[in-house]
Design a protein that fits this description.
303 residues, alpha/beta, TIM Barrel, 8-stranded parallel β-barrel, 8 strands
Amino acid sequence: MTKEIGRLLTAMLTPFKPDGSVDYDAAARLAVMLVNDGSDGVVVSGTTGESPSLSDAEKIELLRTVKEAIPGHNVVAGTGSNDTHHSVELSKLAMKAGADALLAVVPYYNKPPQEGMYQHFKAISEIGPTIMYNIQGRTAVNMTAATTLRCAHLPGIIGVKEASGDLDQIGLVCAGKPAKFKVWSGDDSWTLPILAVGGYGVICVVSHIAGRSMKKMIDAYVRADNDVARDIHLGLLPVIKALMTTAANPVPIKSAVNAMGFNAGPFRLPLVPLPDDQLKSVMKTIQEAGEFITFAKPGVKVA
């Protein structure tokens, strides 16, 4: 039986100390905040967590720290790369360290054919429960619906994080998938549309500051309270767009979280904070979202 991972998973930021080292204590506090604000669990060492600049040792220690901080909640480890052997070895370490599942992106830069994608995910899924991640905007290649469905029948593949931006493709996956296979939105603004075609949930960024609202939206859709789900979707849409279009993720969300009172620290190069004028614009959009923002740090104002 496939383990229940959760409908709302936050793709968690990685806090850093002023000297650029990982702030594991802050990571533990952030994970607790996120699950207290509605997330079913978190993803560590994903793109939002600045995974390209983390060492394998940092990724595993981050996983251990967060797993210990939120007992009873799932922690998914980002272990994908464009090197299948490396991904497999890191996945072994992650499962040994207590990961509940693995998140593996379609290999980037080397642009594998569909057969290569299948073999890549097959190898990783033999290590532990695996969520594939399809995001052509970062990988330069799209994993087709046919390949996704082929992978879906592998015993270790539990789902896909879909950020292809193609609702027809996602609908075809939902129509043809086995019951055990889950489809999570990889774009926050696509969560409700993907639920409508048979998706399961979202691996989310805006849930850093609007976790309860995102959970309420998903729950409302599941119980067929479509007016509530639509109102939350529309209420958060300007914030989601600001976080995803002002600069590449995770620059806007980490800059905003810092501005809202949680010290997530600096970025690792080549990422840098938002310029002041852009941050001011993002914070204004967050403030205007009002009740939809559910930032969990006690006593911290949105603006």
